[in-house]
Amino acid sequence: MRSLPMKTTLAPLAMLMLLLAGAGCKVDDASVISQAADVHKGLQPAVMDDPQLANYLQTLGNRIITAAKQAEAKHIGPDSHFQTDQSTAWMFQNMKFHFVNSKTLNAFTTGGEHMYIYTALFEQCQTEDELTAVMSHEFAHVYCRHVQQGTQRQYAIMGAAAAAGVVGAAVAKDNRVAGATAGAGVGAAAAGFLGMGFTRQDEDEADKYGFYFFMMGGWDPNRFADFFKRMIDMGYDKTPEIASDHPSLANRVENAKRRISELPKDYTKWKKPNTATPEQFAALKQRAKDLGAKMPDDASLQKAQQLLAAFPSCVSSTDNQPEQVQARKQIQQNVDAQQKSK
Description:
Layout: H1 6-9, H2 12-23, H3 29-43, H4 51-73, E1 96-100, E2 107-109, E3 114-118, H5 119-124, H6 128-143, H7 146-164, H8 167-174, H9 176-183, H10 188-194, H11 200-216, H12 226-233, H13 249-261, H14 278-294, H15 299-310, H16 322-340
Parallel strand pairs: 1-3
Antiparallel strand pairs: 2-3
Helix pairs in contact: 2-7, 4-6, 4-11, 6-11, 7-8, 8-9, 9-10, 9-16, 11-13, 12-13, 15-16
């Protein structure tokens, strides 16, 4: 993928970052919630609007959120959660988990009131424990305010680049897809997420607190790493950790084992029955697959699916799934075509 010309990289999002960085502006919760709501409008056509599936996923999500609220009461969490100048009440109210129709194996949160479980990932989950481990991880990103921190890092990069007079190079290297999507008209809100992957520390922190929410939500902590193990078996852990922003899947499995070993001997007292039986879980997976196949394959759905595919991976140590590569390639081609038409 070639570097974008400065005219494209200084799209509205980049210019906004420069202004905010220069003003020393702090990224607050309200701005992230608003940005996430804007992105959701573009993703809405891919949302599985089925009451049975939506109710099941939200029931799981509510168990996770209740566990997180209990954790907060015990002052369990990183410093980023306990910011004295911002309320955390919104994290436990109106939070929505969505199944989205996508062939990409991923799950993602935009940091506000929306979290997305891709149907390709749902199909690979063999148990409710595997699904809720991923959901707990996603909610932990919100609980830890990782999107706010990531956006702040983007501002800092832009500010430093502006001071050094190399804005075009910085955007092309560190925020290439964001610049491309902003130039292609996808929107500054979505572009910000496309160019911002969580760091290795973010992912490990999300596993740490996600593990706690998962256990306190009533699921078996011995099952937390099952989906990571499945991804290893599927060949998703081939990228060396040093070359990835994510911890390796193997290390995530080992970290889960260590956390289990540190639990009190009576940790099983928190165990609750799964929301769905194995048979019900299998039926829900089939329902999602059948309904996904029937969704109208129109331009709005294709655009939403392309955006979903382009999001950074939150479960794998690599962003090189064919759908991800193709989505980003198409976005870049759209920018190139737009530039040539001017």
